[in-house]
Amino acid sequence: MDYSPLRTALADVVAIPVTPYDADGAVDRAAYRALLRRLLDGGVKTVTPNGNTGEFYALTLEERRLVTELTVEEAAGRAAVLVGVGHDAATAVEAARHARAAGADMVMVHQPVHPYVAQDGWIDYHRTIAEAVPELGVVPYLRNPLIEGAAIARLGEECPQVIGVKYAVHDATRFAAVARDAGLDRFVWVAGLAELYAPSYWAVGATGFTSGLVNVAPNVSLNMLGALRAGDYPGAMKVWEQIRRFEDLRAERQSANNVTVVKEALAAMGLCRRDVRAPSKPLPEPRRAEVAAIVEGWSV
């Protein structure tokens, strides 16, 4: 298969949509569609339903399927759809096959949550999923600094549909080494720690980055992408400075408020409710006001 269109889609801003809830706590379908349209109208070309900013681990199986289907329907060819799958291998395979049936383009395989991860076992886990959906692009989501480039290279040799890696280890030097050991050109390297890490990761090999902030201000994320593509690092850092406080709030206490801050911003803009599911928690009132003030200063 020709995976070049999918590789192009990964070398971009990879948006992770939030999953809004209604007053009864169910997925708010209308609000979700509206948020997706806002991303698409804002110029986003790749979306990842069931990502961490979409509260993947707080959604039921039925809700994850619903979000997948709504995303494919709303994208309607305007953007590539990269569906998050995970949990045990059988559940991930079932979700990947559902994504294929729904019309998705790719699957992103969440980092295995098992407490004991062997490197060869990591390869086996991803191979099992990739072989189940050879028609789809497959993107491992890598948060484990112990997974070596050689393991990623071996997975790529065995599974040509593994076309990219979402790398989310807080170490640009480690990323540079892993990407080169695995194959800098063999995979599309996506900076999985969003805009604050995008400039440093871009400098050593990334060509795309994920974003939750893009839910709030698509133009801000796309401005950073444009600057990075042009090699304009001072321009990229101007965006970095603009969003730094917002992203710092999301990163506090090991990213406890990753989703909460994004939903608070959207609530301040009247786009969805602020509700999140446990173990996340809404912000206290003083922080709500701070988030609203930050967003008010952006052109959204």
TrEMBL record:
Q: Name one GO molecular function term.
A: 5-dehydro-4-deoxyglucarate dehydratase activity
Q: Does the keyword Lyase apply?
A: yes
| TM region(s), chain numbering | none
- Entry annotated with the keyword Iron: no
The lineage's top-level taxon is Bacteria
Enzyme Commission code = 4.1.3.3, 4.2.1.41, 4.3.3.7
Q: What positions does the entry give for pyruvate binding?
A: 53
Which InterPro entries is this protein grouped with?
Answer: Aldolase_TIM (IPR013785), DapA-like (IPR002220)
Query: What keywords does the record list, in alphabetical order?
Result: Lyase
Active-site residues are 141 (proton donor/acceptor), 166 (schiff-base intermediate with substrate)
Entry similarity comment: Belongs to the DapA family.
Q: Could you identify this protein by its name?
A: Dihydrodipicolinate synthase family protein
The protein's organism comes out as Streptomyces antimycoticus
